[in-house]
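Fold this: MFS transporter
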Amino acid sequence: MAKKESLLPLKTLFVSFHASNTILISFLPLYLQFRGLNGTQIGWVLAVESLASILAQPFWGYLSDKYKTVKKILFVCIIGLLIGSTLFFQMDTLPTILVMGALFYFFATPVGALTDSLAQRRSVELNVSFGSIRMWGSVGFALSSLLVGEVLASFGIQYMGWVYFFFGSLALLTVFPLKDVKVESQPVKIKDLSRIVKNKPFLIFLSVIVFITVTHRMNDYYMALYITELGGTEALVGVAWFVGVIAEAAVFALAGFWFRKYHAMIFIIVAAILYTLRWFLYSAVDDPMFIVALQFMHGLTFGVFYTAAFDYVTRLIPTFLQSTGHLVFFSVYFGLSGIIGSLAGGPLIETFGGNTMYIFMGIIAAIGTILLITYHILPYGKEITVRDRE
């Protein structure tokens, strides 16, 4: 019973933050389209998010490790998120949207990574699976996708900012009772970051998974436009995300049962193969309901791939640099991949349509799968646990 009580604020934070994140992932492209932006311009705005992520995530992660607190950094970031979102959703021209978007995302993008980093450490402290905590983010995302989809379909996409502010405020309230983590280690200095920069298995792994994560981010950004291109509505977009994230939540919830059976790289490679199959299937449909039906594969791809990859990189990162390493991982997974995915996906879907975009994604994922298998076979593919107390 004590474990449940001690994790309740953290689980509530996952629900509320990922409920707000639903809006950015599922509906922001539709909102920007409502503001008059075309596919290429939408790609620029989404690229700003990813660029801010690359810069912000290591910055906030370093501060978290330096001052040995995740909770206080989360508090600052969520305050900045609320202020930045208020300004961002008031803008109606491309230049102002880009500028305010950069400010907003500088605070918003690290929240998910910091929350996951906190959950990973708490799971070790309490001897519970990371997935059993992380699944609550998927639950929040799924419930919000249904609710927000219906609200925006009924009242209009222009009210999206108010809905985001509501869920962001709930996330802020959950930070106050949150239990911070304690890291007993030497103080972190700038020169300690060389431990990450010189970590070849870590860097090579990040370079390889980009081929998979680019396709994941491209789908995040443009699935809503593809569904509307096929004749679907905002409400159907919400249903599609609900189906996908419920499948993801189930994978996270059962991680304690399936995850330890094999080497993490086996799960990563299997998920990469399923990503490839998923995108080719998406490219072949001509009815938006087929996208909804195929969304169960989101759990088998992102749920498995993310859980295994997060665990794998955790073993490569020194304990006293966990937040920094995790946020570098996030900056590649969601930042660098997001820049490539947004800038490539916008022109593709605008010029050739969603079917061609998903064929392109399938080819890229297939290349990534081959590289992952090669990485696993070569010496740097072997799991190496970094000892920071040598």
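The chain has a mean pLDDT of 86. The two ends are 37 Å apart (CA to CA).
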